[in-house]
Design a protein that fits this description.
four-stranded antiparallel beta sheet; globular; 712 residues; alpha+beta; 19 helices; six-stranded antiparallel barrel
Length: 712
């Protein structure tokens, strides 16, 4: 008779099985096995919010199989993920299988390696009901919000809408940022740059600072031209040189949030893709010469804690591979942000000897790229500081009528430190400081060029996937596991759309958010939502009962809902139509975007006088190399983008590659952006041009047929 260990996924079960041998049978629950019913609220609001759980539809045979094996097993262990969600799944399993949760049946491991798995099985514990209660409270609050507000939105705005604690706040942040952008009034300002040359022929640039020692702003062209005229015959010389050392420390190792942000910036991954790949790297991948092994630690964490064993391993690795000068005298310790759960470690490689180079041939390309990002960041976080020689120079411009100050700065790397392997990226564009030539005070300089440039202050940027996740984390909204599904939901509900890498609210998102702000202030209030997260943390810590956390929320929420129903009565909120540049050929009006049962389409706003409709066309602005028509973006049945002539299938032009803004020097046709192995190259769209790559130009005949059928 063997023991039974139940985990969440088959891949995780497969990896763990090889570490436990014949004494254990390992099965997968395939995630949750019980949940609230979909057909009704499933919460008894009158009796302390008691939930009514049912077995999830379609899992009947799986549950029967688990019950059968549990009866045959010598002992049953529950090895679901080491977080609140995992604890709740274990509790639901214990109820279904008739297990005593007060007994040591719960097994946890932060990484899926032989040592970690065997240690976990040797040291089981009882279920942590505080964690279970915290997850249960979150689920009930989310159900109350979703099932109470969503029908209200259906009646007032549009069927199929949804509301949620985190998704509604995320949408509000994006809508509020768009309001800031639209309200922004750009302010003009000018800069003057001087290109200077030393007696040794070395050139560098310096920027105008002000008259004398006082900083002076140049607000318009007239002021700039006046200053340029005064500087025309000025003599330039070095007034002051300040040299200093600057030190830069490495970024902390990854948490779930920072991993999603950095993977978005550096790799272009969505948060959903990042978490999907990280899950596979954690649960186990087949590595040549090693076998099936989990190569990163648990990927849902907001802790920066590193185990002593991992610290010892990484410091020894750094000293051996890079030299002792790259290893600090003491390990770097990082402090987690307030409210972070410290149940498990930061995200790191499980074994440093499995370097990216060693696993590259065993992993799919994107898995390798994400693993390398994690491996590099963890190694860098324990490496020595970067040291820079920084030079700041004041340049005096002395003319007949004026005495002005210009400034320049630059740096050289004295010791690269952690940057030999990794540097963190940011959302903001940063000016690169160049290297200045050796300068001395009093040194004369020759003016080679003097130019004035106009600028305008810029509005705050739209949120990207990286920056919205950062904003959610900084405001204490949601948990590491909620960021990816939140973004997926607000995109799927069409509250926001992606333009390039940026999020822009749709008219639907604006109308819905305005309604929520006016009538459900708490649901879309950043501080209130963060306070709710604090309450859930207190439940997890055993400080308050779960029913109290829900009651504190629901009392206000119920009043808001009743007031909204009374005040709005039969009011219906119309979502403004999105006007396009497409002209209705029947009446000349600008056509608008409408949503129907089969998706979006173009319609004439003159309905019912004009009933003209046609497919929604995403014009790329490029011309077809075959007939001169517009190249438009279309979507295949599998939701893949492709580009074709607007007259397709009459015109046969079709390609997977996005048209660029550039044109071929040989024939004038638009150039396509061809991406292969992560590298972008430009090829001509004209298949008869020598600059075209014919075999890469278009989908296969079978694929073309599928796309044309899809359009039909």
């Amino acid at each position: 008779m063997s023991n039974l260990l139940i985990v969440e996924s088959p891949s995780k079960a497969k990896t763990i099985k090889k570490y436990l041998g014949s004494n254990f049978k390992v099965m997968a629950s395939m995630g949750h096995v019980r949940d609230l019913p979909k057909s009704k609220l499933g919460i008894d609001v009158e009796h302390d919010f008691e939930p009514s759980y049912i077995s999830i539809r379609g899992k009947g045979d799986l549950i029967k199989g688990l019950k059968k094996e549990a009866k045959l097993a010598k002992k049953v262990y529950l090895g679901t993920d080491p977080d609140r969600e995992g604890e709740a799944i274990s509790w639901h399993l214990s109820v279904l299988l008739g297990l005593d949760g007060t007994q040591p049946i719960r097994v946890t491991f932060n990484e899926i390696t032989k040592q970690a798995v065997q240690n976990g099985v040797r040291n089981p514990r009882p279920l942590n009901m505080n964690l279970v209660d915290a997850q249960q409270a979150r689920r009930i609050v989310d159900r109350l919000v979703g099932y109470k507000i969503s029908p209200f939105l259906w009646r007032k705005v549009r069927k199929g809408l949804s509301a949620g604690r985190v998704q509604s706040v995320a949408t509000r942040l994006i809508v509020d940022r768009e309001d800031e952008i639209e309200a922004f009034v750009p302010v003009e300002y000018w800069t003057i740059d001087a290109l200077l040359e030393t007696g040794e022929g070395k050139k560098f640039s310096a920027r105008f600072y002000g008259k004398g020692e006082r900083k002076m702003s140049l607000d318009d062209k007239q002021a700039t031209d006046d200053m340029l005229a005064q500087l025309k015959d000025a003599e330039f010389s070095v007034q002051h040189v300040k040299k200093s050392k600057k030190k830069r420390n490495p970024a902390p190792p990854f948490t779930t949030s920072t991993l999603q942000q950095e993977a978005s910036r550096k790799l272009g991954f969505t948060s959903r893709k990042t978490m999907s790949i990280a899950q596979e790297l954690y649960e186990g991948v087949e590595i040549a010469g090693v076998g099936l092994v989990g190569i990163i630690t648990y990927m849902r964490t907001d802790s920066l804690r590193i185990s002593e064993e991992a610290l010892h391993e990484v410091r020894a690795f750094i000293a051996e591979q890079y030299g002792k000068e790259y290893c600090p005298k003491a390990p770097r310790q990082y402090k987690s942000r307030g409210g972070a759960q410290d149940a498990h470690e930061t995200i790191r490689p499980t074994t440093l000897s499995l370097s990216p180079d060693k696993v590259k041939d065993s992993l799919p390309r994107d898995h390798y790229r994400l693993y390398k990002l994690i491996w590099d960041r963890f190694l860098a976080c324990q490496m020595e500081t970067q040291v820079l020689d920084v030079v700041a120079v004041d340049v005096l411009a002395k003319g007949r009528e004026t005495r002005c100050l210009f400034k320049a700065s630059g740096h050289t790397v004295v010791f690269p430190g952690f940057t030999v392997i990794y540097e963190e990226s940011t959302d903001e564009a940063q000016e690169e400081e160049g290297k200045l030539p050796e300068l001395r005070e009093g040194q004369p300089l020759e003016l080679k060029d003097l130019s004035g440039d106009q600028h305008f202050t810029q509005p705050p940027p739209r949120y990207t996937e990286a920056s919205i996740i950062k904003a959610l984390e900084e405001n204490g909204i949601g948990r590491p596991s909620t960021y990816a599904p939140t973004i997926t939901t607000i995109l799927a509900r069409e509250y926001v759309v992606k333009e390039g890498k940026s999020f822009k609210p749709t008219p639907l998102g604006v109308v819905t958010t305005t309604l929520m702000k006016n009538h459900f202030q708490d649901i879309v209030d950043v501080e209130f939502t963060a306070h709710m997260e604090d309450s859930l943390d207190k439940v997890a810590g055993g400080e308050i009962p779960w029913s109290q956390a829900i009651r504190d929320f629901y009392t206000t929420f119920e009043k808001e809902l009743e007031t909204a129903e009374t005040e709005l009565g039969g009011v219906y909120f119309k979502v403004p139509d999105e006007e396009t540049e497409e002209i209705c050929e029947k009446c000349g009006r600008h056509m608008v975007v409408k949503s129907g049962r089969y998706g979006k389409f173009l319609a004439c706003p003159g309905y019912p006088e004009c009933k003209n409709t046609k497919p929604l066309i995403h014009d790329t602005g490029a011309k077809c190399p075959k007939c001169g028509g517009r190249i438009v973006m279309r979507m295949s049945k599998n939701k893949n983008k492709y580009y074709a002539c607007e007259f397709n299938p009459k015109c046969s032009f079709i390609t997977w590659y996005e048209p660029s803004k550039q044109h071929c020097e040989l024939c004038g046709s638009v150039l396509l952006q061809q991406v292969r192995y992560g590298k972008k190259t430009l090829v001509c769209s004209n298949e008869n041009c020598p600059n075209a790559t014919k075999e890469e130009q278009a989908p296969s005949g079978r694929q073309q047929q599928e796309e044309r059928q899809d359009e039909g």
